[in-house]
Amino acid sequence: MSNLTSNVLHVGHITSNPRVATLLPSELAHRYLALPVAVDGERVTVAMAHPEDLDARKAVIASLGPATCVIRADAREIERLINELWPQNSLAHMKILSWFPTAKGEEITQNYVQSVAALLSGDLFTCNVPSKAAGEALQQITEAVRLQQPDLLIFRCPDAPLIKQFLLEPAEQPYVQKLPTSLLVTRQPRWPICRILLVLHNPVNDEPALNWCIRLASRAQANVTILPLVASAPAMFAALQARQNLSDILGSDCSLGNQLRQAAQRLADWHIEGRLRLRDEPVDQQVRCEVSEGDYDLIVLGAETHLPVVRWVLGQLVNPLLYWADRPVLIAKPV
Hints:
The chain is α/β, with parallel strands linked by helices. The protein folds into 3 domains: about 1-90, Type II secretion system, protein E, N-terminal domain (GMP Synthetase, Chain A, domain 3), CATH 3.30.300; about 95-180, Cobalamin-binding domain (Rossmann fold), CATH 3.40.50.280; about 195-330, HUPs (Rossmann fold). The chain is built from 16 helices and 13 strands. The strands form 2 sheets. A 9-stranded mixed beta sheet has the order 6-5-7-8-13-12-9-10-11, with helices on both faces. It has a 4-stranded mixed beta sheet with strand order 1-4-3-2. A hairpin with a 2-residue loop joins β2 (about 35-40) and β3. The radius of gyration is 22 Å and the shape is globular. Residues about 235-245 and about 305-315 have low confidence and may be disordered.
């Protein structure tokens, strides 16, 4: 019984694979905060929040087999993944806060918000802020976010001037960057969600964007297009870039190749139909060109990075996108 007495490796980050996770019955996963994360033949690796609990380890190992390898992971991360895999058994529902910065909301927007909340099996709270000075309204929504601690803030806004007033000012640090939670801007709602564009542009926040994409696509049975933003090479390297295509990147050991393979595999694990796109326009035009050509119902991307080198190469993306996008945009932030 060495797997009961041996030291346990602590892992800082885990991802879910429904095919592997469901090797453990959901009632055991919930009871012991345990989640299978990898399998190699008969050997199953399971992440546990409290592996020091020998009764819990015995129960998990009895279910998965004597070759089970136990690792330690963050309890909140395990609980979040378990709730995503078995939402019907979850006692802790996702919190969704809907914010409308005018005196009344359009019925189509309200229906969209309710549909998104139902899709995510979330508890919906509303914060209607009548038209007033932007500073006072932002103070109110900031307090509401602090009190409710939502997983998602839905900003119901039909026009660009309000988006600019409430989200994109002040210019030196827009409010959208200050928000501690993920944000869904519902300008011109589109329902049902059948086609999602996932934009990869930020090595820090791309994974939260992928997590949101999987969460939505798996429940809506939507297909996903992954668009990595790749900066154009200087003219002196144009010939080299011309020979670089998606197959070359996927077959390489570069960070982008690894990221795309992992993202594609995670979509496959969740049985989500996906495809990869690579564009050759200037980086500040790639998303706009893809959106104009594709009939996407939702754009998902990570929040803007503060890393100077990334902003120097890719420039600003989130702020301009929120201003011109004529469909819902979800800006993902780490949980």
